[in-house]
Write a structure and sequence with these properties.
heterodimer, A: about 300 residues, alpha/beta, Rossmann fold, about 15% strand, globular, B: about 400 residues, 2 domains, seven-stranded mixed beta sheet, six-stranded mixed beta sheet, 18 strands, about 40% helix, about 20% strand
Chain lengths: ~300, ~400
Amino acid sequence: MNLDETEYLLPGNRTCPGCALSLAYRHILKALEGQAIVTVPASCLTVLHGMYPITSVNIPCVNTPFASTGASATGLVAGLKALGKKGLSVVAIAGDGGTHDIGIQALSGAAERQTDFIYICYDNEGYMNTGNQRSSSTPLGTISGTTPILGKQQNQKDITAIMEAHGIPYVANANAAYPLDLYEKVRKAKAIRGTRFIHVFTPCPPGWDFPFSDSIKIGRLAVETGWVVLYEVENGIFRFTSASESIARKDHLRPVSEYLAEQGRFRNITEEQISRLQDRVNTRWNRYLARADAS
Amino acid sequence: MANKKVNKKADIQILDGNQAAAHGAKLSRVQVIAAYPITPQTPVTEKLSEFVEKGELNAEYVAVESEHSALTVCASASMVGARTFTATSSHGLAYMHEMLHWAAGARLPVVLACVNRAIGAPWNILNDQQDSISQRDTGWIQIYARNNQEILDSMIQAYKIAEAVYVPVMVCYDGFVLSHAEMPVETLSQEDVDQFLPPYQPHTILDPANPKNYNLVTLPNPRANSENVLCHGYMELRYLLQETLQNSRETIVKVGQEFGELFGRNYANMLWEDRLDDADIVIVAMGSLASEATVAADMLREEGHKVGVLGLRVFRPFPKSDVVKALKNSRLIVVFDKNISYGSEGATCSEIKSALYGSNVRAVIRNFIVGLGGRDIKARELTDAVNKSLPSLEEGALNNEYPEWICYI
């Protein structure tokens, strides 16, 4: 695979050491070959983009309020269309708070209207930019700023399934620890018209409480345990990709407890919660296996 | 129409206020429309959808899922260089609040028709001006129309003003009183409007060949860029928005003057003056109430009082010096507000008082809150309020701390 040699994400940005978002964003922008306008709500990505008048990102970008990402993309698409400007992808990139929570209305509206854009949700499973509070993507049992002692009592929302239910032509699950898989998915999405949704798992060392050097290790463990599954659904056809494809062939997942044990955020998790999480992973995995067989 | 420069035959149609706004948007060749239905604005969105689906208007119509998204779509489309329009009322405008700040802060010349309606709780779909007055401090220019002709004319002027100063403009008109009331309106020819309104040029171009970031995090203090040139801090950007609003009077008047020269209806003013030359009693009102106030003035003149009307056309920027000039002969000023700044008084009354402070005008000022939630306002009620205020001229108290309400309490 020949990646675009141009760097659109320049060194010296303000993300934390070990930030998986930086890695993911670098490959996303390469896949777009710079021919895009991105719209970004309040998030860690805002921090990455820098402070006026200096930015670390070499691509046209619009910052937009938290709830408005899907609508901002809609406006960019409508404006470009009205002016007859072709050849630019409109790409919205938001965190899980900006996608699963405050931005879901605008995103759902844009997808229902079949707006011609790519929406990328980078998911660090909480409000990390404001210092780690729980979101609807925070897992059961997680200690966060707003679940400080007992841990979160609810499961995560399956945003990719929600987006698939909009009947859009392409949805995918990716992971910053598998940058080439992510790159291919963005390339594929770029060539499709209509609303395309890519969910990217981005481990967060300070938020999840693991060493800065372990982002890739955590990302891989997530896939090997089935916590994260790499797949895509193109026009209704489900397909495992990358490492998840070979794991599916062997049909062997490592226990979820191995993944949980590596992260301080699960320090107060109960055996009962671990067992619930394992059941959830197993159920989903079997559903995916069945879908892959049927496809 | 004697001084009209264009030669086209005037086309008079019977239009309600919403149709007038839709025609104004169409004549302005809006390129992106995004709106969400709310009473009493809904017919604007339906009319524009019809224009687009019939192929009479070459625009993208985005039927968004909320007002917050409506204004976001307009803001982002404006950033890539499209002329944009939205319309809303009441709760819809309140729901846009965040984006109102954002559009003005990003200096995007969006035009919004606000069909003035009361805000809940409790629910009320009828007219007052609490909605747009509540958005006073968002950095938008606010123009209020007295009748449907002014709605259409103001829409077209709004784009020229907004795109000259890079500040969004809200054209406000009273729900039902104007939005659903039919009147003769002269619709202009497209050719003439094209002559008046040039295409929109965005202040920033989003182009991968020269990538720019819009609305980055901006620090309190100025900061050097990579070429070591000092760039504005957040506060300087806010100052520039205020400075532009302060100076926009010139543009608003100039655009109104040009419009008058072309179309025969002169808008080279920030406010409407009715018989102020000899009046020592002045009624102040905004929107359709300024029309009705002229009827009250007629009645009071028949009773022997020298009464005039000051109609506020532009509420932001507030035309302080124009107000002082217009009120220079007044001894009694009676301000009617279809809004209330709770715990204080009507918003336009506060503005009038603020404008007069330090001037030579020493007039008694009385404030009446009227017409909230669609409460009918009769001309006789206006004259009663003026008559009730007359003894204050002898009693000597210039100011009352709080307004009076024309209601059953």
